[in-house]
Amino acid sequence: xxxxxxxxxxxxxxxxxxxxxxxxxxxxxxxxxxxxxxxxxxxxxxxxxxxxxxxxxxxxxxxxxxxxxxxxxxxxxxxxxxxxxxxxxxxxxxxxxxxxxxxxxxxxxxxxxxxxxxxxxxxxxxxxxxxxxxxxxxxxxxxxxxxxxxxxxxxxxxxxxxxxxxxxxxxxxxxxxxxxxxxxxxxxxxxxxxxxxxxxxxxxxxxxxxxxxxxx
Length: 216
Description:
Elements: H1 8-29, E1 33-39, H2 45-58, E2 63-69, H3 74-81, E3 85-90, H4 99-107, E4 116-120, E5 137-143, H5 150-153, H6 155-159, E6 163-167, H7 179-190, E7 196-198, H8 207-213
Parallel strand pairs: 1-4, 1-5, 2-3, 2-4, 5-6, 6-7
Helix pairs in contact: 1-4
């Protein structure tokens, strides 16, 4: 049985915050914009990153991605096959990326070669919330296939993110989900101070608005 000693959790979060600040400072020194994409398995994070990267590369913006997964190279391979330069980051047993793991990935990257780094976090709507990575933005991606109660069930990740994205709008009717319910829950939770962006990666809808929200 795993036992967390008193104060241990606070120390871990404090150390992560320190390393996240160091990551942020290093990225700024190289004039890199960085985004952490959080969200559950199947929300469409990988496909979204690929589409956003394609649009940026068409403008001459140099982009790479860090693929975060517990094990394997599936998302890394998808990035590379799309033409997006990628770096794999396996967490082994952990259900989230942390600033220390990201620092190791950044050490593998020639930062002068890129303008934007997309980081795909481990598929999870709980653990990543407490572990900022040192990015400019934290984004949470959900999809209509997950039901209309995602915001009500997972307050923390929505409160700890800067932008929320509701993907797979093209099939909301087929899965019986009203996106306005999700939007209303999000507006209530955030006091109307943050926006939720609706998109369909498959139909290439809403992606330009997301790029604008990320100042890209």
